[in-house]
Design a protein that fits this description.
The protein is of the alpha+beta class and 671 residues long. It folds into four domains: 57 residues, no CATH class; 48 residues, Laminin, CATH 2.10.25.10; 298 residues, Chondroitinase Ac, Chain A, domain 3 (Sandwich); 148 residues, no CATH class. The chain is built from 18 helices and 25 strands. Strands 13, 14, 17, 18, 19, 21, 22 and 25 form an eight-stranded antiparallel β-sheet that branches. Strands 15-16-20-24-23 form a five-stranded antiparallel β-sheet, with no helix packed on it. The longest helix has 34 residues. The chain is elongated, with a radius of gyration of 35 Å. The N and C termini lie far apart (118 Å). 30% of the residues are buried.
Length: 671
């Protein structure tokens, strides 16, 4: 027995810096002394890089290789190695929970009886689960209906089961309180953190009302400390944290994705600012608490459509060698700690970096609300919003010196660029932009670089104004002239109708009324619109009508009415022309008659402005197809009218022939 213990002791000594019994060089603890080519040398162990004597740094295989775990798997770096874990809905083909891809393991679809394992929880509230081959379907229970109209649906596809429609809940205190209590009761009934997150995800992935946004943010701000707890064994703790963070980011993305911005904009200013502050605080602190569960050195990236997260976790031995920095989209963030010779204690550090793509427009400066004159300068966020949070245990292990970041403008830079942070109170959850502790280091036409000496949420502010009044006037003039163009298109349609039908009318009287209708009716519409909503003339992006509160319909409404009138006139005109041609020229074939009418009809479509229907379709339901059709047909509207009504007109061709037939240089071309 003593001999066995002696052998174990010798083996341990050899592994700790000595690889060959004849090799006597002292090596780093993560290196081995080996004799190669007759020479002694220290060589770092696999998974480490360095000279082998003074240093052996851990290789981050997850960052240095492209998808080292393959598809449908997440990579987690460890000291000297790494491991892979299949994402939700997949399992390894060998049955191993943790694996390395070079052993032949890959992730395949997990055929699980979801209904027997998760019951109706997987489908959401008031829904039932039915297991099928390779998956399961969800359907609503009796007395409830699917929000999307689909009788069978999958979780997280935006479908939820709703009770019989009742009056919409408005933004009143009583209604908000009732909704908050209902949401909190539902969340508190779930006992596992991951299940709570999954319920948040199912409830917020689809359409939300403004009251729902307030309620779910309130529930999140109360429950985020619970979400970061992991009640599992140490061996499962990091793996579960990895999965939880992925679900957490994708759930938080539901609140801030682009199509939810209009819901936020519908909130009153105070509710919007407080709810956004609560959301940002909960996301930052929730992610930081989850990152603290990692006890080994690792990095983790989670990227959703409009929210990105980067996590750094390392121990005291790696403090000097890890410098947290990250490229997120077109933005760059770097953290610089205070320099220390040697860490004086053991401990761990967690660093969280976040990037929000779209919420900047919602976080306007409070001074903007006190401005009455639209020509005064306003401060707006002209970049994405980033957040940086650090947890150090003990606090003296990793102390911040500065944060440097470079942010890209989301719109063209104007003037007075500032580096700012969202300064808020954790008690009131009310905040505003401040520049204290931040300074601008460099700025160009596309990016701004900043330096700050504290942690929180950061963005680049831009002062804009002065030209706002000019932009509003331009939008008003465009509104008037475009409505005038439509009014004259309507007059053209009525005039053609009267000619074709053969109605006898007083030309002088009618022409006078044509001028009144063509120029005065647009002025009346613009005047009423400006009186009721002058602030919606001109936006931060374009000098045109705002789409807020459906103000754009002050143009679309009259335009649609005129297009409808012209289409009716168009139908009558084509019918009369076809009948008239068939009666006067019976020798002309039906095919020739149809072709002639079709050419005239195509010309009338442009003349009467019917092609603007593509513009209406694009505003109602925008797509690339309607955008191109509208642009092409209306950009060349004048050219099309010239071609169909002038160049292809037989009478005009005869007049050109009569005019130029006696000109020697042109006669040869006309023959």
């Amino acid at each position: 027995m003593k001999l066995f213990l002696l052998l174990v002791l010798m083996s341990t000594v050899l592994d700790y810096g000595y690889g060959s019994p004849n090799c006597t060089m002292p090596c780093h603890k993560d290196a081995k002394c080996e004799i190669k080519g007759g020479h002694q040398g220290c060589y770092c162990s696999p998974g480490f890089t360095g000279n082998g004597i003074a240093s052996c740094y851990d290789d981050n295989e997850c960052e240095n290789a492209t998808q080292p775990c393959g598809e449908n798997a997440n990579c987690t770096n460890t000291v000297g190695s790494y491991y892979c874990m299949c994402t939700l809905g997949f399992k390894s083909n060998t049955g191993q929970e943790k694996f390395i891809t070079n052993d032949g393991t890959s992730c395949v679809v997990a055929d699980i009886d979801e209904c027997s394992e998760a019951g109706t929880v997987a489908c959401g509230d008031h829904a039932k689960c039915e297991n099928v081959d390779g998956g399961y379907n969800c359907s609503c229970k009796e007395g409830y209906q699917p929000s999307t109209g689909k009788l069978q649906f999958k979780p997280n596809d935006g479908t939820s089961c709703q009770a019989i429609p009742r009056a919409n809940c408005e933004l009143y205190d009583v209604c908000i309180t009732e909704n908050n209590n209902r949401v909190l009761a539902k969340i508190r009934s779930i006992k596992e953190p991951l299940a709570v997150l999954q319920e948040f995800n199912r409830s917020t992935v689809g359409q939300l009302s403004p009251v729902d946004v307030i309620s779910y943010v309130e529930a999140l701000s109360v429950s985020y400390p619970f979400l970061s707890t992991v009640n599992y064994t140490v061996s499962d703790k990091e793996a579960l944290t990895n999965v939880t963070i992925n679900v957490f980011v994708n759930t938080m993305n539901n609140f801030v994705q682009k199509d939810k911005i209009t819901v936020w904009e519908a909130l009153p200013t105070d509710n919007k600012r407080k709810s956004l502050t609560k959301l940002m605080h909960a996301v930052e602190q929730g992610a930081l608490r989850m990152a603290q569960n990692f006890k080994k050195t690792m990095q983790l990236d989670v990227i959703a459509s409009d929210l990105a997260l980067k996590v750094f976790a390392f121990d005291s031995h790696h403090v000097k060698h890890i410098h947290p920095h990250v490229h997120m989209g077109a933005d760059y963030i770097k953290i610089s700690p205070k320099k220390k010779e040697v860490p004086n204690s053991n401990g761990t550090v967690a660093v969280v970096l976040l990037r929000y793509s779209n919420i900047g427009s919602l976080l306007s400066s409070s001074k903007n609300h006190s401005l009455k004159d639209s020509s005064e300068e306003r401060e707006t966020v002209s970049s994405s919003v980033i957040a940086v949070a650090i947890s150090s245990n003990p606090p003296t292990l990793y102390e911040l010196e500065k944060i440097t970041f470079t942010l890209k403008y989301v719109k063209t830079a104007d003037k007075n660029i500032k580096c700012a942070f969202w300064n808020y109170s954790a008690d009131t959850m009310d905040g505003d932009w401040s520049t204290e502790g931040c300074e601008l280091t460099h700025s160009n036409a596309t990016h701004t670089s900043c330096k700050c000496n504290h942690l929180t949420h950061f963005a680049v502010l831009m002062s804009s104004g002065g030209s706002v009044l000019f932009c509003s006037i331009t939008a008003g003039l465009l509104h008037y002239f475009l409505l005038s163009a439509f009014a004259w298109m309507c007059i053209e349609g009525i005039h053609l109708y009267l000619i074709v039908v053969g109605v006898i009318y007083n030309k002088g009287f009618l022409h006078k009324n044509f001028y009144i209708f063509g120029y005065m009716s647009p002025a009346v519409v613009v005047g009423i619109s400006a009186a009721l909503g002058y602030k919606y003339y001109g936006t931060t992006e374009v000098c045109w009508l705002s789409t807020k509160n459906n103000f754009i319909w002050s143009f679309i409404g009259p335009a649609c009415l005129i297009i409808l009138v012209n289409l009716l006139a168009f139908g009558v005109i084509i019918y009369k022309v076809f009948r008239h041609t068939a009666m006067l020229k019976p020798e002309v074939s039906c095919y020739e008659n149809i072709r002639s009418c079709a050419r005239g009809a195509l010309a009338l479509l442009f003349l009467l402005g019917a092609t603007w229907i593509f513009g209406v379709l694009h505003v109602v339901q925008g797509s690339v197809v309607t955008a191109y059709l509208f642009t092409i047909f209306n950009a060349f509207q004048g050219m099309f009218i010239f071609i169909f009504l002038c160049v292809l007109s037989r009478k005009i061709q005869e007049e050109y022939y009569r005019l130029f037939k006696n000109v020697p240089c042109c006669f040869g071309c006309l023959r």
